[in-house]
Amino acid sequence: MKSRSVYRAHPDHASAAALAREERGHWVMAALYPSSSSAKTVARRVPIAEMMPAYEPAGAYEAYAARHTDGTALWVRYVAGDEPVPVLPDRMSVRIRHDGDGPGYSGIGIITLTVSTRCSQCGGPRGFDTVIPHRFHHDGDWYVADRWANKCGHVDMYDAVLAESREVLLPLVPAPVPLPSPPADDSPAGLILAAAKLWRGMHATQAAQMLDVRGHGEYAERIRAELRSRNGHMSAKQAADLLHALPSPVAEGGVQ
Ligand SMILES: [Zn+2]
What we know:
By secondary structure, the protein is of the alpha+beta class. It has helices at 13-22, 36-45, 158-166, 188-198, 204-213, 217-229, 236-245, and strands at 28-33, 61-68, 71-78, 91-97, 110-116, 132-138, 141-147. Strands 1-3-2 form a three-stranded antiparallel sheet, covered by helices on one side. Strands 4-5 form a two-stranded antiparallel ribbon. It has a two-stranded antiparallel sheet with strand order 6-7.
């Protein structure tokens, strides 16, 4: 990566946007904020280029905010163009070797964990698309655990990943899916279904994010409320079903 410091009082968004534009679809750390709320606010503005001229036109960039060891990092990528770029999922499942917590030898084990796709150190995307099985031999038996490589270069140790999976992850601002061309049905549910058709595996959090960008914040909140009651298990299609099932249209801006 080029020498471009993100440790500065005034983030250089013009340079970050230019760097991201050089390699479409590649995530670039644009800035580092001491407060997570600032980072999240900027992450919401980047995709719509609101007060962020470096990221014009609206829809050309995606962004998310994620924990960094020195604050909260803003990551952006350039997505303008015809071909869709791969969606960055929020979570990844991996198998790790875990030999037990108890005192003394408690046997070798393989456990499957779900962790964030964001690097715990810099917030950059983890190598969720590089996961490969690693077979190893121990005491007469064969085991399989996963290995992956993070593009940022930070190495995930199994113990750290296990600890991370056990703590409550801070809510992340997910990368919104690129906006589809206006569908015939441009109701909030119609928008979600059109996007879900293009991006398989689209999650309800991404559906809510897309509705935010499209000015349907009240519907996005309804989806998030349902997501919480389902402990985060909800696809975009289920979110669309939820909106279809609403008894009456939610008044835009009318709900406290
Ligand atoms: Zn990293």
